[in-house]
Amino acid sequence: MTDPDQGVDDPTEEPADPFAIGDIFVREELLRVGYVPERDRIIGRDDEIRAVGKALGPAVRGGPPRNLLIYGKTGTGKSLVSKHMAREARSRAQQNDVNLIYQYVDCSNEDTETRAARELALGVRDTLEPDLDIPRKGIGASEYFRHLWDLLDAHDVRSLIVILDEVDKLDGDDDILMTLSRAEETGKTDTYVGIIAISNKIQYRETIGERVDSSLQDREFVFHPYDANQLRQILENRRDAFRDGVLSDEVIPRVAALAAREHGDARKAIDILRYAGAIAEETESSTVTEDHIDQAMERAEADRFSELVSGSTPHVKYILIALASLTLSRSKDEFAKKDIYTAYKKVCRNEGSDPISWDRVSRLLKEQSFLGITESRHTGGGYEKGSYRVHSLNRDPEIVLKALNSGKDPI
Ligand SMILES: Nc1ncnc2c1ncn2[C@@H]1O[C@H](COP(=O)(O)OP(=O)(O)OP(=O)(O)O)[C@@H](O)[C@H]1O
Ligand SMILES: [Mg+2]
């Protein structure tokens, strides 16, 4: 035991263990995004779980799985529920003596057909035959697929479930969807292949090719945002990430209320809680306070926004810069598309880029509004005045400009 009165320089004092866990967290991993909680920690997604279960149900009994297209705003549990259900399907199939495997592919990392096919083939290899050598470089998508079919057939796999997360990031490259959805029909393999494709872009459906559309058409399902109550339970279930007594009673309800007001995004709620803990730790506080939550909100907001727009095309960024600058420079926060378009053209001029059409800007604005970055509504107008749509930024304009690396006076 060290004597608390001893000075720090006392040579007999044991040096502090540099690997010791801090005063705030005990199981910080519970707050990581990739963490897949057990069924009893998954809150308020019964219908969603049932929908995925219905698609995978036949496969669990040795029949063909159905494809499923999942849509929903960010942080609504799409990735989580899909991974959880794939894992469940595998263990249920095992009980039925059915050889079913699944593979998760994050298309935001693997954004070309070859990379996605490689991820899939190597993942399946790791499951079925870890010692098998498949090159990481120098071969194309079709060869990865050949390895995949060979593996599936060699191991007599009845069903393969492929989760293609963030499938819209494949950049219009829908060949992988085609290949997978037609694999059995075209005699590539005897294994049934089921696809769970996930997107947070509602327009994705319109952009996938006709051919794929018809084979993926089986069913689609939309995940809805969480309410404050559900968010509170989701956070309560991860309270054990923290040491006892670190979270005072009001912390979780407050984070849940804040996150619910801001679009019911569970990821954001969990991030805020984690950041609040990290800030408490950085400031050597022994409890998480409201002040930490406020700072965490800001940090989560900036992070989330950067992540959301990181894959966006330059024009999406220009539109957001235009809207953020208008919001900062005028004393209002709702703007007609005409004004946004004018400001957007100025941003383009400064960036040395040709503006895209009014219609396309409109489409992009709609997409941003689906992502919850902007909001739009019809003005009251009435007959004489005519009602029209106005758009506003749902984020702090300064954070937006900072995240988009925009200069001070972009318009
Ligand atoms: N119903 C739930 N119960 C418990 N935790 C949840 C629930 N829904 C989401 N989470 C947690 O919230 C975070 C975000 O969920 P998830 O990654 O599944 O969202 P998503 O819908 O895939 O979002 P995105 O479109 O941004 O990828 C994860 O850490 C996940 O574990
Ligand atoms: Mg996801």
Structural description of this entry:
By secondary structure, the protein is α/β, with parallel strands linked by helices. The chain has three domains: 179 residues, 3-Layer(aba) Sandwich (Rossmann fold), CATH 3.40.50.300; 83 residues, Orthogonal Bundle (Helicase, Ruva Protein, domain 3); 92 residues, Winged helix-like DNA-binding domain superfamily/Winged helix DNA-binding domain (Arc Repressor Mutant, subunit A), CATH 1.10.10. It is 47% helix and 11% strand. The chain contains 16 helices and eight strands. The strands form two sheets. Strands 2-3-4-1-5 form a five-stranded parallel β-sheet, with helices on both faces. Strands 6-8-7 form a three-stranded antiparallel β-sheet. Strand 3, helix 5 and strand 4 form a beta-alpha-beta unit. It starts with 45 loop residues before the first helix and ends in an 8-residue tail after the last helix. The mean pLDDT is 88. Bound molecules: adenosine-5'-triphosphate (ATP) and magnesium ion. The site of adenosine-5'-triphosphate has 21 residues, from helix 2 and helix 10.
Cα-atom Rg, whole angstroms?
25 Å
CATH superfamily assignment of the largest domain? P-loop containing nucleotide triphosphate hydrolases
> Mind telling me which CATH architecture of the largest domain this is?
3-Layer(aba) Sandwich
Number of strands: 8
Physical arrangement of strands within the biggest beta sheet: 2-3-4-1-5
| Coarse shape | globular
N-to-C series of helices and strands: HEHEHHEHEHHEHHHHHEHHEHEH
